[in-house]
Amino acid sequence: MERYSRQIILPGIGKEGQERILKSKVLVVGLGGLGSSVAYYLAAAGIGMLGIVDYDFVDITNLNRQILYKEEDLGKSKTEIAKDELKRLNSEIKIIPYHLRLTKENIGEIFKKYDIIVDCSDNFDTRYLINDIAVLFSKPFVHGALLGYEGHVTTIDVKKGPCYRCLFKEPPPSGTTPCCREAGVLGALAGVVGSIQSLEVFKLVLGIGNPLVGELLTFDVLKSSFRKINFIKNKNCIACCKKESNNLFEGNYIDA
Amino acid sequence: MIKVIINGENHEFKQELTVLELIQYFNLNPYRIVVQINDNDIVEKEDFKEYKIKDKHKVELIKFMAGG
C-alpha cells in the first residue's frame, strides 16, 4: 500500500477507500487522447481491474496526444501496447485488453463485468451505444469529448439523473461534426479532459464529492474557462424514459 | 430591446429573435448544436425557426462533440 500512500492520506480516502479502488472494475472505451490519460491515472491509483477497449493500431498522427504510445510502437495494436505500458506502471492490477470495436452484439457481455465505464471513444455511434447499454444496465459512465479547443465532461448515472440522450437526443447527421482528424486537437486538452474523467471515476468509486451528474462541464482552452451547464431528465427521452422492454434501444447507431 | 444570457455572457438584441436567427448570428451550424433555454427546456430542431428567444432568457448553445 506504500505506493498509494499519497492518496490514502487524503480526507475521504484512507485505507478503506484504497481497498474500494483496488476492488473496483472500470472499463475504458477508447485508447486515444482521452483514453491515454484516463488509463494512466486509473492504473496509477490502483483500479483493480481495468478493461481497455480499442480496435486501432498506433499511427504517427496519434503521437501528439496519445501519450500511451511511442515512436517504436507505430503499427502495433493499441491494446497490446497499452497493456504493457500500464503493467509497467502498476504490475499489481489486472488489465484486460479488448482489441475490438464495440457493437450491439458484444457490448453487453463486456459491460456486465465492470462497475463503471469511461467513454473515451471518438465517434457518435460508439457514444450512443455506450449510453444506451449503460441505461439498460443502470451502470454509471463518465463521458468525455473534444472538439478543437473545447472539451466536455459529464457523468451519467440514470439512477440519479439524466442520460446522455436527455441532452443530446440523437447523433447529428453524418459528416456535420468533425473528429480530431478534421478539427484538430492539442494533446494537453485531451490530458485535461481525460484527467477530469479520471477524477469523476474516483468520486464514484469512493462516494466522495459531487460527481457531474446532471451537469455538463465545458472547458474552453482559449478563454481558460470552465462552465457547468445543468441538464435534467427528459421525460420523453427515448433511452432512459421509454416504457417498454429490456432490449437495447434499436437506435440510430450502426453495427460498426 | 431584449437582454439575454448566451453561454454565460450578457447580450442585447433590438427585438426578440428565433433560435435559428440566434444560431446564424453566431455563425453556427444548426445541425451541430443543442439549444437549451433556462436550464430545463431543450428546443427541438424542427422548432428552431419558430421558437422565440425572449427577454431574460438564459440560452445555452451546446456543441455536439465526439472527439476522443
Automatic annotation (TrEMBL), chain A:
GO molecular function term, any single one: ubiquitin-like modifier activating enzyme activity
Keywords: ATP-binding, Membrane, Nucleotide-binding, Transferase, Transmembrane, Transmembrane helix
Lineage top rank: taxon: Bacteria
SUPFAM superfamilies membership: Activating enzymes of the ubiquitin-like proteins (SSF69572)
Domain named THIF-type NAD/FAD binding fold: residues: 4-237
Gene3D superfamilies in UniProt: NAD(P)-binding Rossmann-like Domain (3.40.50.720)
GO-annotated cellular components: cytoplasm
Chain segments annotated as transmembrane: 26-53
Pfam families given in the database record: ThiF (PF00899)
Protein name: THIF-type NAD/FAD binding fold domain-containing protein
Species per Swiss-Prot/TrEMBL record: candidate division WOR-1 bacterium RIFOXYB2_FULL_36_35
UniProtKB/TrEMBL annotation, chain B:
InterPro entries: Beta-grasp_dom_sf, Mopterin_synth/thiamin_S_b, Thi_S, ThiS/MoaD-like
Stated name of the protein: Thiamine biosynthesis protein ThiS
Organism: candidate division WOR-1 bacterium RIFOXYB2_FULL_36_35
CDD domains: Ubl_ThiS (cd00565)
